[in-house]
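Q: What structure does this chain adopt?
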Amino acid sequence: MEKLTLLTLALLLAPLSAGGQAQIPHDFELARDAVERGEILPLAEVLSRLQESHPGRVIEVELEYSSDILVYEVELVTDDGRLIEVDMNAATGEIVKMDEED
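A:
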């Protein structure tokens, strides 16, 4: 019988450490898979579109469900120093909501 390596043992025990349930893929894996299936646009394309209408420095991006659609929620500091949050339809790149942060 072959000896189990620590890596093999860790892989075998991983489901047990998660309470016996399968692990949920990371957000980036879900996003990558959705892009590969053509369900959403790549983040680089969406950010390029956003820079055309709202130039600035991107601080944070999240992919979330909002009103039953996937949206990229982008926080950025505009060139004039304002902090804004822009929700963009992840499938079309259209801006669906924009808020200025305090």
